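Action item from last meeting closed. Structure (78 res):
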């Protein structure tokens, strides 16, 4: 597969994905993706994302729970 951003080639890799599902944020490890070898852009197949959703719908093991801050970015603060 060719990267849409830089034209580089992609390679299959297992990655950590930030995944929003039913208004909750999950960090899902070992998700298969196509990753650009030049710029690092990641592509996920629809079947893979559907499988992640299906996993989260079922009772699943939780490796760790994290506390995440939500902040609003404004140019004045930068």
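Sequence:
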């Amino acid at each position: 597969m060719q990267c849409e951003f830089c034209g580089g080639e992609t390679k299959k890799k297992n990655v950590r994905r930030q995944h929003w599902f039913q208004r909750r944020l999950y960090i899902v490890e070992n998700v298969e993706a196509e990753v650009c070898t030049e710029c690092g852009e990641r592509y996920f197949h629809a079947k893979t994302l559907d499988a992640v959703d299906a996993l989260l719908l079922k009772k699943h093991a939780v490796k760790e729970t994290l506390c995440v801050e939500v902040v609003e970015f404004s140019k004045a603060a930068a």
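Note appended to the action item: Residues 34 and 62 are 25 Å apart (CA to CA).
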